[in-house]
Amino acid sequence: MGGDDYLTKPFAVVELVARIEALLRRPAESRETVLRVGPLELDLIERTAKRGDRVIELLPREFRLLEYMMQRSDQLLTRAMLLEEVWNYKFVPATNLVDVHMGRLRHKVDGPDEAPMIHNVRGAGFILRAVS
Amino acid sequence: MRQPQFIRSNTFHRALMVAGVFAVFVIALFGFIYWQIDDYLTARSDRVITLEIEGISSLSPERRLQAIDEKLRQDPRGVQLAAIFAADGHRITGNIEGLPAGLRIDAAAQAADIVKINGNGPEHQIIRAIARHMRNGDVLVLGRNVDEAREISHVVGQALGLGLLPAFLLCLLAGAWLSVRAQKRVEEVNQRVQRIIAGDLRERLPHRNIDEPFSKLAGIVNGMLDEMETLIHALAGVGNDIAHDLRTPLTRARITLERGRTNATNLEQLQAVADKALAGIDQSLAIITALLRLAEIENSRRSASFANVPLHDMLREVCDIYEPIAENKNITLQVAATHRLTVPGDRDLLIEAVANLVDNAIKFTPEGGKVDIELLRGGAETIVRVTDTGSGVSEQEREAVLRRFYRSDKIRNTPGVGLGLNLVAAIVKLHGFRLAIHPGPGCRVEIICPDRERAKQPAPPAKEQPAS
Q1: Which of B79, B81, B360, B428 has the smallest CB count inside 10 Å?
Q2: Any chain B CB within 8 A of the CB of A89?
């Protein structure tokens, strides 16, 4: 047996859909040590991040967040999913924890003159997209 | 045929038993009294006749005859017996027909079976008697009737009959009365309990202000019922609160949708309306999620899976998570954990509890304030303390903040559900810890974890080395 994920009622449909998609497109158990999405590059061994030639300084938690998002690029990631997977939280905090952290990460990843890669999906969550 | 209920009752059986024991005891007592009296009377007779025989035998034979006649004359009750027999056995004088067969001569006083001669002819009697050989060969026999003893026994028996029967009846009556009374009270209690079961929570057991077991018991049960009534009302209150808190955002969402439907002219406006409505519904969902989580924690028996949780690491992690949020609000968030302390517990739940406290602290601290997370040792306790520079909790609100959905008037316009501290309290209770909320400006909340002696590793004191 074994379930990969579960949701307790009450849940939003968008949450359910996002989780099902996440399960369907589960990242292949890759031995990749360098993740790449568009111009974004994450070295899991060196613990460094680059966008093009620009080096991005990341805090450990931000690194983990970006890693999780890059493994699931082009997928909708809900706040609850991020809390569980990145912060190991099994509850929803009252404050906008995810938004704040995401805001900081976005600030670092998407420079002022660059095309945004992290997109906010209103009322649902976030998506990391390669710049086309 | 059905026996009356009181006869089958335990109380009555016991009363019957007591009455039986009582009767046996009384009979034994009377027997003893009779035996004692009989003994005493016999001994007295024996003494008297022994003295007399000494006196009479010391007289000359002629004086002896006179003395005996004298003695028999002066005996209105007819209890005296005396006779002198010649050596060949024939009677010289006295009121005893013949020398009694079993009577040992020159021995101590003894029981003897004799035939008494008086005006009405011979009469068979059992008496105490003593006999002596005189110097001239005659045999002197003195005796005394101890029928008095038999009379006394008769009186004693009568007294027994007269006393015992009423006493026994009294016992039975008392038993029956007690039994009926107990039955009545049980019946009364039963009826009231039936009413309580039927839902009348205000009903109480009959209770008299006397120091009596039954009343005491009723008092205890009534106390329990009071507590239950309060709890049930509290529960109903929670239900009302939940309904209220859910209705507000849902109503808002509904009104928003309704207005949007009539007023929106393009897609963008409609989307804005939908977003607003979603926010309202999300808040309702958040409330329900928090409630379910609360119930889950309160019902869980997770203590079996407890492991030692390193608190210093945990606090740093919480700080790490909340730092950006604090920074956004221009609040200084600091951890002071100089000791490496562990407590037995569920790491996820403990993080949730501390995170909730920090979340609260940041939420209620104005910009430019400070939130401190400290790990302390005091007495036999490990303390996690979260202090902020917000408005704090007033003395009156201290109890209230732990109630579900309680939200201070001061923070009406801060978003939130009002269940955070409930969650913390539930988690703390599950671990057997204590939650202390200190009133006054600058809220100070503590999770106090007392050491457990049973823990195999005496966790905190041994590990109290400064963290590297």
Answers
A1: B79
A2: yes
